[in-house]
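ESCALATION

Customer reports they have been waiting on this structure for their group meeting. Please prioritize. Original submission:
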Amino acid sequence: MSPTGIPAADRLNRDCQCIGTDVDALRAQLEHELGARGLREPFVQTHPHLFSPLPVFVAPAHTEAMQQVVAAVERVVATAAWREAVLADAPAIARVAQVARGVFMGYDFHIGANGPQLIEINSNAGGAFLNAAIASAQRACCVAVTQLLTRSGAGGDLDATLCAMFRNEWRLARGDAPLARIAIVDTAPAAQYLYPEFLLAQQLFERDGISTVIADPSRLVLRDGRLQCDGQPVDLVYNRLTDFYFEEPAHAHLAAAYRADAAVFTPHPEAHALYANKHNLVLLGDPDWLRAAGLDTATIDTLRAGIPRTLRVQGADAETLWQQRKHWFFKPASGFGSRGAYRGDKLTRKVFAEILEADYVAQAVVPPSERHLAPDQPLKLDLRNYVYDGVVQLVAARLYQGQTTNFRTPGGGFAPVYHPPALAPG
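Update from on-call: job pushed to the front of the queue and completed.
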C-alpha cells in the first residue's frame, strides 16, 4: 500500500503519465527492419494505435495470482477426465492426439475488485513478437520508473525463449531431425492487421537458421506425404488461422496434412479444443465437476476465485438472462478476437434472440481496471499472459476504450507491464 492507502500499482496507473514505450522510435525501428521484408507503408498510417506509450503497473501479488490460475488450469487439462469431457463434443480432427503442446496460449485477465479474473483463453494469441519488440524501446523518463522497470524475460532473452519454444514443438514431434523450414500460415497474410508480427517472427526464425515463408493456405499442397509450399517441403506450420478445426473447404488440404502428420502444426485443433473453447470455462468454474474429476481442494479454490461465473446460454434461461443482462457478457463459444461478443447492457432484443439461436456462453461481468492517459482520460486495460507448456513467458497489457480491445483508441494498444513493489504505509 502507498501512504494514501491506495495500492501502489493502482496509484501509478492513475497518476503516472510517464512514457514507457518510445512509440516513434519503435515505429522507425520496425519500418527499418521490416521494410525489406514487405512492409510498405509507415506504421503511423497503418497501425496508429497498435502501441501505447504508457506503461501499465501490476502488483506482484496479482502477477503471482495469474500464474496460480494458469497452473491450476494446466493441472485440470492434464487429467483424463478433462480430455474425455471436452473432446467428446469436439470435431473429430480435435481428437487426433498430438505431442506438440501448442504455442502462444493466451490467458487474458481483468483485474477486478477480488483480484485477477480469467476472462478467456486463446489458442493462438497474437502479439508476443510485437511485445518483444516493445521491450527494446523502453524509456524511463523519471527516477521512479527507472527504479521500477523490470527487464526479466525482455529483449534478446525473450527472442531466444520464443525461438526455443518452436524448436521444442519440433523436437517433441520429430526428435533430433533438423528443422529446416517453417511456414507462417494465415489467410491473405499481408492483409492481416498483425502482418508486421509475421514479419518479426520470420526475421527471428531466419536469424536462428530456419528458412521461413509467410503464406496463404492456397500456396500449400499435400504431395507424396509431405506438406509443401511453392514446391518446397514445410516442416512446421505456425498456424495463425482462426478456422481452428480446418473446417472451411479452402482448408481441406490442411486438414488432410494434419491427419497424415505431413508437417508439425502449432497451435493445432486439439490444443484449441482442450483450452480455448469458451464452454471450457463453464467446467473450470464448476467445483462439483472438478471434485468428481479428482482435482485437489487448492486447485478448485484457485479456479473458483480466479474465474468469473460462466454458463451456457440456453433457451430455458432466456428470461432470467434478459432481466439480468447488465450483469453478463455474452461470448460465442468458438469465437475469437471479441467477434460476436456483447456486453449485456448494450444488447437489443433482436441481438439477444440471435444469441439464443447460436452457441454462446454468458460470463459474469468483471469491469476492467484502468490506466489513465491523463487525469480525465481513463483507458480500460486487460492483461494477456503468453503461456507455453504451463509456463508464463510474458505478460503484456492492452489499453482501449469501448466494449472490447480494438486497437482503435488514441493512446491505446499494447503496453509494457511494470511491477512496483508493495510499499509500506508511511
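Sent to customer with the following note: The chain has two domains: 8-307+366-418, 310-364.
Escalation resolved.
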